[in-house]
Hints:
Elements: E1 7-22, E2 27-43, H1 58-65, E3 73-80, E4 83-86, H2 92-101, H3 109-112, H4 119-129, H5 135-148, H6 165-176, H7 178-182
Helix pairs in contact: 4-5, 4-6
Amino acid sequence: MNANNDVLLEVEGLRKYFPIQKGLMRRTIGNIKAVDDVNLRVQRGEVLGVVGESGCGKTTLGRCLVRVYEPTGGQVILHTDGRELSVTELNSEQMRLFRRSVQMIFQDPFASLNPRMNVLETVGEPLKVNGLASGRDLEDRVAKVIQQVGLRVEHLRRYPHSFSGGQRQRIGIARACRRARIDRRR
Ligand SMILES: Nc1ncnc2c1ncn2[C@@H]1O[C@H](COP(=O)(O)OP(=O)(O)OP(=O)(O)O)[C@@H](O)[C@H]1O
Ligand SMILES: [Mg+2]
């Protein structure tokens, strides 16, 4: 789509419609056009804010971009690791690469952190699930990334309830940190 190396994300004509259903047979009588023809481009290192009235489709747009929702139409292209991924048409190998590259940081860290998982388990889970680290290596990487977000190694075995709101938000940022997943020291 675009030869510019600085482009990270391109969105063209993105649409997400939800069916409006009625009656016992749940007949579709129309669509809610939650996202209708969104076009945008994000450069590497750029931060994009989406602003608008309640119900205008901000969350739905975000969910389409991270493939929580299957878009109704349009194109999403992610440029990562020297490759161009069509986010709407990922095969299983590309989906793995995509999941390593794109992570969500949730607005409410209390609701999005599992109270039964300590920092090591929470931040280490994506590394484990992606088969990127285990054992001592996993702990070293988690220790490194939590220090990058301003937490300390002695926090590794503490649970979410014992952190301040700001510290909890940092745990969420550390969990989403791509650096931990690509910093392979082998
Ligand atoms: N899963 C769904 N099924 C049906 N309709 C939905 C669904 N999710 C969202 N909608 C509808 O799509 C529209 C956009 O919702 P969305 O949650 O994206 O808005 P928003 O901009 O994030 O709003 P807010 O600022 O209130 O969070 C709304 O009309 C909403 O009712
Ligand atoms: Mg929202």
